From TrEMBL:
One of its GO terms (molecular function) is FMN binding. This is Nrdi. Transmembrane segments: none annotated. The lineage of its organism: Bacteria, Bacillati, Bacillota, Bacilli, Bacillales. It comes from the Bacteria. Pfam families: Flavodoxin_NdrI.
Length: 59
């Protein structure tokens, strides 16, 4: 299973790196429209009052 993540401030990125998982993908402007053809889990922070960031919604 792939772990896909988005990090505004770097906190989520640091968390994912600490897990030492190998099958990860960070959502960026360059790959936000790239399809994923395997099961995945999305890890992200939230903004405002628990809203999902726009790049994650677009993904």
């Amino acid at each position: 299973m792939k772990i896909i993540y988005f990090s505004f401030t770097g906190n989520v990125r640091r968390f994912i790196k600490r897990t030492e998982l190998e099958n990860t993908l960070e959502i960026t402007a360059e790959n936000c429209m790239e399809p994923v053809h395997e099961p995945f889990i999305i890890v992200t922070g939230t903004i405002g009052f628990g809203e999902v960031p726009e790049p994650v919604q677009s993904f």
